[in-house]
Write the structure tokens for this entry.
Amino acid sequence: MSSLLHQAVEHAQAGRRDEARRLLQEYLQTSSDNEVAWLWLASVAADQAEYQRALREVLRINPANQQARTLLDQFQQQYGPRPPAPVPSVPTPDTYAPPPPPRPVGYEGVIVGAPEQEPYRQYAPPSPLPYSQYALMGQPMTPPEAQRVQVEHVEKRRRGLFGCGVPGCFGCLGCGCWQSCLVALVLIIVLPAIACGALSLAPFSLGPLDMIAVYLPDDFGRKTVRVEGTRLEATLQTPRSWYVADANNEMWKIWRDVLDEALPFADDQATWKDFEGTDDLIAIVEVNPVVLSGAHSNSAGAPIRLTVNLAQTVSGDFSCSAVRAQQSQSTIYEYEGGLCGYRTDTTQSVPSENIFRNVTAPDQWTSISFVTPITAQTGLQWSLEMPADLLDYYRDDIQALIESVEVKEI
């Protein structure tokens, strides 16, 4: 089928009747024996004369076309036989001028004939089938019901989620307004809420997604870490981008290798593997290259490490009254069972020699030492080291970390 007829069919299916009729008339100037084209012209005819003439042309080409025969019989039964318009059966470019209807009208309108004629409602035939669905000339065609099923099937395939083209409420965007707004509600409110709830209920590591989730607020950006020694086990909350430096921790090994490439040490003999401890000496290390390279610390980069020796405990009285009396200069933390721990911060200047290659070293360093109770007479000492400029950046995380520590004997 020629591209001209193809275009005409597309215009007719889209309801652009005038453009479809113009293209069909142009096509029939050179292909007057095309049954399909005449049938399409009947579906977009401008008046009765053109409608009857198009159907007669279909029957001239194919007397066995039952659809054209039925439509023409129905028309004549309703309005009576009318003579075809006095125009050549094959129009030519020089002489063709389709007779205008008495009044502009659509298929749903009313055409008023000549003064001696009575008003009548124009007969509106069912639209012919899409050209791709036509059987061979002279063979029975697919019934109109099949056409509607096919068209509806195509429309459904073109729509997206819940039958909508694009989610949103503005202009309904391809489907019913209530459907569009429902999709928008799900995408904008419900799914993020479910994701946040899942993060809060699943504080374990998310693997590579930790680098994204770490920027979520409060507990959403933190995870629970468990470390185990020969006789003690501790759990605590850390930022999601902190990992236990353990050769058996697969995610740590991945990030260790990434950091060896992205942030190599100025000392060629040093590597990130050096942070890995022993059975009881544990290190938890920040692995986010953005933070380590100085993005949040005035472009000063250095490692951030939390260490604890699970084989060494601190003896003392860890009842809250005793801790408050003995550690009046420290920050006090209360734990279950009426026990308390304490924290001491120390900031000092350090040499400006670079730690990472091509990254400026911090000129001040902060060490945070804190003790968490195990029993009323024993505690566990932790040490956290970082550039002083990062203290404000991690302030809430450090607070949550110390408050969350739980230590028990194995």
Observations:
- Residues 162-198 form one domain.
- Residues 95 and 362 are 91 Å apart (CA to CA).
- The chain is about 35% helix and 20% strand.
- The chain has three domains: 3-138, 162-198, 221-409.
